[in-house]
């Protein structure tokens, strides 16, 4: 997706399928993406299953997506909502941080080292 590249995120971070609608309100940074049906993707490099609902929304800025809806990650046996993604790692930006709003995990960040091969289809 062009938008993800423009924000500095690596290709493959939002592997949505059959997009029907996508938009950006530049004044607020609000973005929405609608796909034909929900989609589950397995990221082999991290061993993580992620579910993308029919509609995914977020407020975006360079290297960051916040107040996200429609994205969940399977952790142990629970589907955990992902509410924020941001890039770090200095100039290389080789770390991606994910934030959930689950109870005590509300302020906890999960760090994933970025290796482009991790996000294979």
Automatic annotation (TrEMBL):
InterPro entries xref list: At5g01610-like, DUF538
Domain of life: Eukaryota
UniProt name for this protein: DUF538 domain-containing protein
Species for this entry: Oryza meyeriana var. granulata
């Amino acid at each position: 997706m062009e938008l993800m590249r423009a924000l500095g995120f690596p290709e493959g971070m939002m592997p949505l399928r059959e997009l029907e609608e996508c938009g950006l309100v530049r004044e607020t940074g609000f973005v929405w993406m609608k796909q034909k049906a929900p989609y589950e993707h397995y990221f082999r490099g991290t061993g993580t299953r992620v579910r993308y609902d029919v509609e995914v929304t977020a407020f975006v800025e360079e290297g960051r997506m916040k107040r996200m809806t429609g994205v969940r990650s399977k952790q142990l046996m629970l589907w955990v909502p992902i509410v924020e993604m941001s890039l770090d790692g200095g100039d290389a930006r080789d770390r991606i941080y994910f934030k959930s709003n689950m109870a005590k995990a509300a302020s906890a960040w999960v760090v994933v080292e970025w290796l482009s091969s991790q996000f294979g289809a």
